[in-house]
Design goal:
Elements (H helix, E strand, L loop, with lengths): L8 E8 L3 E9 L5 E11 L6 E5 L7 E7 L8 E6 L4 E7 L9 E6 L2 E7 L2 H9 L7 E6 L5 E7 L6 E6 L6 H15 L2
Antiparallel strand pairs: 1-2, 1-12, 2-3, 3-4, 4-5, 5-6, 6-7, 7-8, 8-9, 9-10, 10-11, 11-12
Pfam families: LOR
Protein name: Scramblase
InterPro entries: LOR
Amino acid sequence: MTAQMYLPRFYVRQKLTMMVNRYEIIESHEDGSDGRLMAIAQQKRLAFKEQVTFYRDEDRTLPVFSFQARQRLDLGAGYDVRDAEGGHLGSFRKDFGASLLRSTFQLSALGLEATGRERNQLVALVRRFVDIPLPFHFDFVDTATGQVVMTSERQVSLRDRYTVAVLDPRIDFRLAASMAVGLDALLAR
């Protein structure tokens, strides 16, 4: 089964501003070059109830999907991903207990449950004690088959940049983009 909007590879680029984090989601061509702009996301800093809306245009006039926390100020809060009409695309949540030594997330889509963990245990530990921008990578593994279904790899750069590969066509692009932005937004706290 293939998701309604499947995109096998894309980039997430963060733009820092005073009051919000802005993200550009850019399609990747097979040769690794930039493709079309797929969405722009904006996250208010220090919001009590996390919500990130993705827009089709720079002026942020056409919302296309979003994710929102189910609860306020909960370290293990779940996030629902919805399309422009409010339809449920999937969800994700941080596994707070498992994340003490190695950040761990649960990702749910139609017919799929996956666990995402930081790939490198040493980098995970160093990140907790040193405030320098280290490249960190996440692998999401199907809990039923053990197969990697999605990866998010942070590149070394002055601002946050990620390469996201979606290996399982059951994962909708909008859910994958929400998870990728969520990783950056939730781990930056």
